[in-house]
Design brief:
This protein is mostly beta strands and 408 residues long. The chain has one helix and 28 strands.
């Protein structure tokens, strides 16, 4: 297990603000993928294949993957993947199922020749689960089940523990309901595992992380008619149950978009909450007994949302997303860091770029190194009410080596 997942398109139809804000984060035309290097992060140009990056998997400093979606010559949404070999990014072919829309929302890596990616394909106007596996040479579709014979099924996140154990989460939807969806890999096949649905109006899972084979967490949202609330599910080796005592913050919606586990008593979940008219970053921490709200950095202009998180140690975690800049009339990428005692903004050059909109959707630390990579997109500045022309670019940012600790 080397990373988890980030952004997912299936959130947009459910969470109104995210749908609106992300539609403004448009990628610039080909050739516009270079950002000015900042004092802390540097930008690495992509192959400009993926239009909508969703998730990142870090195998090593010279073996990194980003997955998402692109468009073919007929403008149909198709799966997309790019690979970093230590010196450049290149497009890697990923199979699609049928002629309808296909998208990858999550990716995880066990080794350089053993990766999983999840998302959805479209058949007869309904979405079906899509799972693909990289064997070191090519991506192949692996058969995955769907809940029911009608309605939509989509997977948003995956965590692979070993060659015989992996978990994928998402949701299934009919005209009358949306339910959590959890699937398990046993080394031979994927099967649906029963999961709670505490929300009477809807439930959706957006992230999954394993602290151990019998200690798995999944996050998302639930709705029982009083707004969206954080949904935290836990697997103890026997079955899935809803986590108890999850804090509700602010006055409105609470949504968890990602989760990362350092150990059994060190787990982080991230997302956003609404307080009055403002959308604020949400970071929750589990200490082995209790979930608690830990304040995280917010922009000053009323909208700050976290989309992905990666925790590698008790004193090192990164969260990424986007925030509003009223003076610039657009959204910019947001990156922040946990140092063991507090969260603090750790801006990139794109955060202060007045000519481009930008957002980060996922983040991961390269194992055995101090390198941290974030995946997202950026583009020429657009007026909030204006027309849009979409190009394609993926920006991956890498901070320098951290300073050594000072002697006391």
């Amino acid at each position: 297990m080397m990373t988890r997942t980030g952004y997912f398109s299936v959130l947009a139809p459910v969470v109104g603000l995210l749908a609106a804000s992300l539609s403004l984060l448009v990628i610039g035309p080909p050739g516009a993928n270079g950002l000015v290097c900042g004092p802390s992060w540097s930008t690495v140009a992509s192959s400009e294949h993926i239009r909508k990056p969703s998730a990142i998997a870090t195998v090593a400093s010279n073996d990194i993957w980003v997955v998402g979606s692109t468009k073919d010559a007929a403008h149909a949404i198709r799966t997309g993947a790019e690979h970093w070999n230590g010196s450049s990014w290149s497009q890697i072919s990923v199979p699609d199922v049928g002629t309808g829309a296909n998208q990858l929302n999550g990716v995880d890596a066990l080794a350089s020749n053993n990766l999983w990616a999840v998302g959805y394909s479209t058949s007869s106007r309904s979405q079906k689960t899509l799972i693909e596996r990289w064997n070191g040479t090519q991506w192949r579709v692996v058969t995955s089940p769907n809940a029911g014979t009608s309605g939509d099924n989509a997977l948003t996140s995956i965590d692979a523990l070993s060659s015989t154990s992996a978990w994928a989460v998402g949701s299934s939807r009919t005209a009358n309901s949306r339910k959590s969806l959890i699937q398990r890999w046993n080394g031979t096949s994927w099967t649906i595992v029963s999961s709670p649905n505490p929300g009477t109006f809807g439930n959706s899972l957006l992230g999954v992380a394993a602290a151990g084979p019998n200690n798995i967490w999944a996050v998302g949202w639930k709705n029982s008619g009083n707004g969206l609330q954080s949904l935290l599910l836990h697997y103890n080796g026997t079955g899935w149950t809803e986590g108890a005592g999850v804090p509700r913050v602010g006055t409105g919606d609470n949504v968890l978009t990602g989760i990362s586990a350092v150990s059994n008593d060190d787990v982080w979940a991230t997302g956003y909450y609404v307080d009055g008219t403002k959308f604020k970053t949400l970071t929750l921490h589990y200490d082995g007994t209790t979930w608690s709200h830990v304040p995280s950095a917010n922009g000053a202009d009323g909208t700050s949302i976290l989309m992905g998180i990666d925790a590698s140690s008790p004193t090192n975690a990164w969260a990424v997303g986007f925030e509003d800049r009223t003076a610039q009339d657009h959204y910019v990428a947001s990156t922040q860091r946990w140092n063991g005692s507090s969260w603090a903004a750790f801006p990139s050059a794109s955060s202060s770029d007045g000519t481009q909109e930008s957002a980060m959707f996922d983040v991961g630390k390269a194992p055995g190194t101090s390198q941290v990579w974030a995946a997202g997109r950026a583009g020429l500045r657009l007026t909030l009410g204006g027309g849009r022309h979409q190009g394609l670019a993926v920006h991956l940012l890498q901070p320098p080596e951290p300073e050594p600790p000072q002697a006391v």
